[in-house]
Amino acid sequence: MHFQIVDNNQKCKKVFNGSDLIDFSDDLPLSKTWKYSTHLQNSNVEYAYLYAGCEISDSCPGILKDWWDTASRKVSSIIKSTYHAKCDLDETCIYDYIPDKILLDFLKCKQSIIQYVFEHLSRPKCYDVLEKAHILTEEINAVYNYYDGKKSKTNYNIFGTRTGRLSNAKSTIPILTMKREQRKLLTPSNDLFVEFDFNAAELRTLLALSDKEQPHQDIHDWNRMQAKSQDIDREQMKKRTFAWLYNPEASDRLLESIYDRNAILATYKTQTGIKTPFFREIDCEDRKSLNYIVQSTSSDICIEQAFKLRDFFSHSKTKVCYLLHDSVILDFAKEDVEKFSEAKQVFSNTRFGKYVVNSSVGKNFGEMRKV
Q1: What is the pLDDT of residue 338?
Q2: Model pTM?
Q3: What whole-number distance in Å separates Cα of residue 310 and Cα of residue 134?
Q4: 316: Cβ contacts below 8 Å, ≥ 6 apart
Q5: For the chain, which ranges sit under pLDDT 50?
Q6: How is residue 325 annotated by DSSP?
Q7: Going by C-beta distance under 8 Å and a sequence separation of 6 or more, which residues neighbour residue 253?
Q8: Which of 10, 207, 244, 340 has an alpha carbon within 20 to 30 A of 144's alpha carbon?
């Protein structure tokens, strides 16, 4: 059944079934909708948003555009008025403020767009990782955390970059672009933040795509050991490695003996760009091919591992609260302390082998200490 959750507030249980508003329950035969909602944690549903790769206004076919513009404008105007009137939408439902005729007209138009998307667009090959990213970010976006002493939310966008790396769209909490001095302003709702951070994620992905085993130590130290020279320290090796990695014209006999750039490009390069192990297909210039393969794959590995943590803590107070490009931040409850080591292992054990993970904890995001 095509359907729509009318309000994501957990206290608001109405769902639109194509003609009427009915009470939501896990027993309803729900199959296709626009976006994920936290109401749907126990449902097996497909999302038109992931087929379209853009917001619903940009997916609307020309034949429905006038209807959508009119219906959405009316509803948007009413929603804005509820905010101006300082209505408590955490304790009430948005559909209680919208006249039935206007609400049903809007929902019927939205339903027509959803049906159009499913009928005319193909299921993306990378749907699996898109779904994980979508569910994670919608759950994160729905939760308040404390930023500068106020309850605020973030606003992730899974389609904000070409490689699939997350972006913040007009975010109240600018987690991906937060300046160092701002980090102290971000505090958890539970007892503390826990961050699991991949050690040199992109280099580990490059190594994995070269069919090499993961070293069980800091990768820059490991690279230095391969050089068998006392004349180069870790920081020098790190600079040398990234200078080579991000410059397709650069040559380095040592690094090329470890990381097989040519074999990776032969496997994942296409006529118009690149494909990835997660089935993303991205158009790009030749000189950006390797960077896009590594960045996109590393980001999707982080998303996949964060989704495993979401499931691991599904019956716990601890929750995934933020995603960075190569790390996950948990809003951690002290009652889950015995799960810490196992959770770190869950994040570490990727489809490409065991990535070394650094961990840190803190009462705010600006004062995290390694553990």
Answers
A1: 97
A2: 0.95
A3: 13
A4: 333, 335, 336, 339
A5: none
A6: S
A7: none
A8: 340
Report pLDDT for 126. Answer: 98
Residue in the structure block whose two tokens are 């898109």: 130
Alpha-carbon distances of 219 from 13, 91, 242, 319, rounded to whole Å: 50, 50, 12, 29
Work out the end-to-end distance of the chain between its first and last CA atoms, rounded to an integer number of angstroms. 48
pLDDT at residue 110, rounded to an integer: 97
The amino acid sitting at 137 is T
pLDDT on residue 226: 87
- Return the pLDDT at 5: 94
Spatial distance between the Cα atoms of 79 and 86, rounded to a whole number of angstroms: 11
Residue written as token pair 């038109």 = 48
What the block records as the tokens of 257 is: 């003996």
Q: Which two tokens stand for residue 59?
A: 């997916």
Quick: pLDDT tens for 113-129.
999 999 999 999 999 99
| Of residues 83, 58, 85, 86, the one with CA closest to residue 72 | 58
The Cα 170–Cα 34 span in angstroms is 21
What digits encode the pLDDT tens for the residues 61-103? 999 999 999 999 999 999 999 988 888 888 899 999 999 999 9
Give Cβ neighbours of residue 167 (< 8 Å, ≥ 6 apart).
Answer: 156, 157, 160, 161, 176
207's enclosing H/E stretch is helix 201-209
Q: Which residues of 6-37 are buried (b: 16+ CB within 10 A; e: fewer)?
A: bbbbeebebbbbeeebeebeeeeebebbbbbb
Cα–Cα distance measured from residue 138 to residue 141, given in angstroms and rounded to the nearest whole number? 5
CA distance 154 to 173: 5
DSSP 188: -
Burial 99-137 (b: 16+ CB within 10 A, else e): eeeebbbbbebbbbbbebbbeeeeebebbebbbbbbbbb
| Two tokens, residue 185 | 């302003």
Using alpha carbons, select from 240, 250, 228 the residue that is nearest to residue 203. Answer: 240
Question: What structural domains and CATH numbers belong to the chain?
Answer: 4-120 (no CATH), 143-371 (3.30.70.370)
Q: What's the rounded Cα separation, in Å, for the pair 291 and 26? A: 43
pLDDT at residue number 364: 95
